[in-house]
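Appendix B. Chain record.
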Amino acid sequence: MVFANGTMRLRRMKRVLGLVPALCLLLDPRAAAQLVVCAPFLRQGCPVEPEPALLPYWKQVPDHAGWQMLLSPAFPQSWPPPPAGRGSVVRYAFATRLKPGVVDGAEMATPWARVMLDARGIQRVERLTRHLRPLGLQGVRPLGTAEIALADREQDVAELLLAGGTPATDNLVRELTCGWISRQGVVAAAITPLHPGFTHWLACPGNGR
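Structure tokens predicted for this chain:
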């Protein structure tokens, strides 16, 4: 069974990051030079998977034991999106854990890092905090087949946002992002204020708490 808060991984999603296939990652934003990684239109040939690249940061969080790392879908860094080839997106790493005695919810923690990617294929990780700060309980429910299929298109939405988007693709961006917000309202409440223009454009019903 696949649950809506993501505590069990979605079928067919093989990578935690999943912005674009097989991206190389710049591990430390303080490094002397930024690494030009495989661009979004390249589908193979990168030597490093994103998930292992995040793990060193995760292991440095002193209170991560018992928590599971999760990632938000892509949010554009500016809105309206700039012309094709100039966009950039960010995904937020957060955490969840089961709480004794709670069978229909999970405890969520504040985003602790973010992963930024621009249309040139330059990507980096920025740590936001060294400690996990609990935000509250998020209700959970089983995901339906249509929701699973939609969640599998996170990569498509990230690429659309990087490309500037078009009216023909607006519905996919809205549907996927609002679906995630409806299931992860507790964490989304900490993320959406950082993207006011995009959030206003989404106009998602409810907050998923």
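Further analysis of this model is presented in Appendix C.
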